[in-house]
Amino acid sequence: MTLRQQRFAEDVNSAIALCEQYGWPFTDFHQTDNSLSFAYIKNNNKQTVTISISEDYPENTFITWHENQEHSDHSNDTIKNIVMAINREMSVGGVERSDSMDTDNSCYEDCQERFVQDSDENEESEDDTDFIDDDNHLLEAGFDEVETNPVLSRDMEKLWGCYGRDVMEYRTFESIDEVDVEIKVSLASLLEKEIAEAWNLDRLQPMVIRLNLSLSQYLDSPKPPVLQVMHTSKSGIVSQLQKVLNDFISEQWNRVSNSLIKRLFDEAEQADRQITTSTHQPLDEATRTVHDRNIARLMEMGFTADQASNALMLNNGDLLLAVNYLMGNPASCMGPTVNSHDVGSSSSSSAKGHAPFHRQTSHPMAARHDKKVSRLHSVESRSQQKGADIIDLTSDGDDLTLVPASTWFGKKSKRIPSPNLGFLIQVYQYTRQRIPTLNEFCVVCDDAHVFQNGAMLKPSVCSRELCVFAFQTLGVMADAAESVATGAEVVDLLIAMTRSACASGRRDVIFSPYPTVVDPTKSTELALNPKSKDYEKVKKTLTSIPPIAELVQIEPGALKRKLDERNPLAYPLLQWVISSNRSHIVKLPEHRRLPFMRTSHQYLLLNSPPAKEKVFQDLKKQYGSTFAFHGSGIENWHSIIREGLVVGSGTKLQVNGAAHGKGIYLSPNSSTSFNYSRMYGTHRQKSKTSESGARFLDHGISMNCIALCEVITHPNLKKNSSIWVSPESDHVCTRFFFVYECGQCGEDICTQNATYMKVIQEAVNFRT
């Protein structure tokens, strides 16, 4: 049973249980893997309804009424909510709803209109108008008419007050004592365009977190709320975030309660009264909202609620003065402290700030010593002894190459926000913390990946054996660790890289990561294990995989069987090659290729994680950027696309000399980089007819490649004629990748030539 079918079955059981519990007039339930049918009496006639789900459940669900004239409707809601909506239409009265729920941005369908009979389509009853609020706001009057927990009401007001009314909507079901709360997290302020594209997310649409809560019990409900993460895009990130938030809420549910949140709210109001007494100026509602919003800002910078509140109190509510006080006062810069009533870990991480606020995540080297409020992510003084597990981003060491900044942000992203501003804000802040760094954690166990150059771009399963077993044998989180290759041509390239790395004389160094594959004949053991590497076994298995040109001719359902006939390890190894790729690779269509590169095998290649890309973009605004080539043998790219482009100078990864110093070697001249990739010979301009028009690679031994990178024009970029050296790996991002086969070579061009630069920039702006 797939995760989708499991969720569908759970929703069906929940819907049937509600029908039985409240005596709803539905009978004759019949369930299949993809549909639910039931009957009800209408106008003394027995009517039947069938709800059919798609692969995107709960999205694209179809509801069919088998009445005198069969008709269907579309919904993006869960089975339980659909059944509840049908029951409401059959009952007297209705449910309090907000006008905002009927907007295009809502994830709810207009249930009132959906189920009205055809004969009544042009009629409007007085009952229907009772559900609309003319002010275009959520119905607070309706909320007061039902027995709503006062802590829930205050919690919702806190979220609205701190982050705006657009971040949350709700719908009440008073007949069953439930409320659906939708928290909307904007992605535009969290993810750069290229990151969102690589993750298959529309960054202009919010990530929606729906919580099904008890209307009267709220936090005192014995079971955690049912959680649903939704987005308009079909992305594995949504599944990963769903698991992350499920674990977070389940853990926090045992730590929060109505009495705790009420006490925190009361203490905050008491602090406001103290401010009123000391300043002799009463705090009106607008001022109190600004105060809460400023506390939320400081918490997202990495300070605790107590630190934020005290600093604002000492500085008469001035946010900038409070920040300067916290940054400069040693007593306030000792890191987060836990108050006696705090729950779990004390403070929010240094998450990326929300849309109205500047999101400071970069730390350019030239600005590290500036005494400005630019290092808002740090609450430690320079003189304080750092813990062994904390990375000092303010030091001037060279170890940033091996431990990049993204690791620091990843660690901070799992810190639990303080509940001082309420449970809903806690969920909102934690969601914002986790989204930009989801790629840094295993989709199964949610532990941090361990890579030589830190996190990469794509979500994936870690190399821990339990996670590999769960993923390969049980399909756990298979939809989150989605196939990152976007076409057969890319799979072909991945196989070529893996085959070259395994056949290399330096495979002990460069064939990393080594495959981790569960034995298909004995699922409790690993057939390919990094702890006991068998290169010949990998080579033999790769050889048994037929050319991609043949694979694409096989029906998808028969692919595994065909490969099993050749070698039982062929299919699982192919799966590993695809799913372990952590870079965003797309083969460029002909009209988007760089014509002067003289090869049909041109790819967009992005592998920077969100944190690194944000650092890069900030540095680019400050110093500017240009483009240069990086040449390296194709066998090295198996590791690069999974572990990143690293500074290999002075390490076992170094192949060529380091005469120009330590760093990543680049060149504005393609001919220089061709030499580094061992494409020796004369690099003269070739006619277009010399290009290979083949769709796939021939996997010959003379295969060569180079990458076109964007590099920050930082003062520390060393330019020695045609050889450039960037000592900082964070200053170099791959953009394009070119593969040349036997007899092929590109033109000898210089990226600094205005004509070539214009073509490159146009291609980069196209991205995909």
Task: Explain briefly what this protein structure is.
This protein is of the alpha+beta class and 768 residues long.
Explain what this protein looks like in three dimensions.
With 768 residues, the chain is of the alpha+beta class. It has four domains: 1-137, Ubiquitin Conjugating Enzyme, CATH 3.10.110; 284-418 and 436-440, no CATH class; 465-579, no CATH class; 584-766, Phosphoenolpyruvate Carboxykinase, domain 3 (Alpha-Beta Complex). The protein is built from 25 helices and 19 strands. Strand 17 and strand 18 (723-726) form a beta hairpin. Helix 6 (150-163) packs across helix 10 and helix 10 packs across helix 11 (305-314). It is globular. 44% of the residues are buried. The model is unreliable at 92-144, 332-408, 482-486 and 681-690 (pLDDT under 50).
Percent of residues in helices: 25-40%
Structural class computed from helices and strand pairing? alpha+beta
CATH class of the largest domain: Alpha Beta
The counted number of beta strands is: 19
| Strand arrangement, major sheet | 1-2-3-4-5
Shape: globular
Main beta sheet strand tally, sense and closure: 5 strands, antiparallel
Strand content: 5-15%
As for the number of domains, it is 4
Q: Architecture of the largest domain, according to CATH? A: Alpha-Beta Complex
- Predict the CATH topology of the largest domain: Phosphoenolpyruvate Carboxykinase, domain 3
Distance between the termini: 35 Å
Helix count, DSSP H or I runs of 4 or more residues: 25
Q: What is the averaged pLDDT score?
A: 73
Computed over alpha carbons, the radius of gyration is 29 Å
Q: Uncertain regions: pLDDT < 50 for 5+ in a row?
A: 92-144, 332-408, 482-486, 681-690
Protein name: Poly [ADP-ribose] polymerase
EC number: 2.4.2.-
Family: Belongs to the ARTD/PARP family.
Enzyme class: transferase
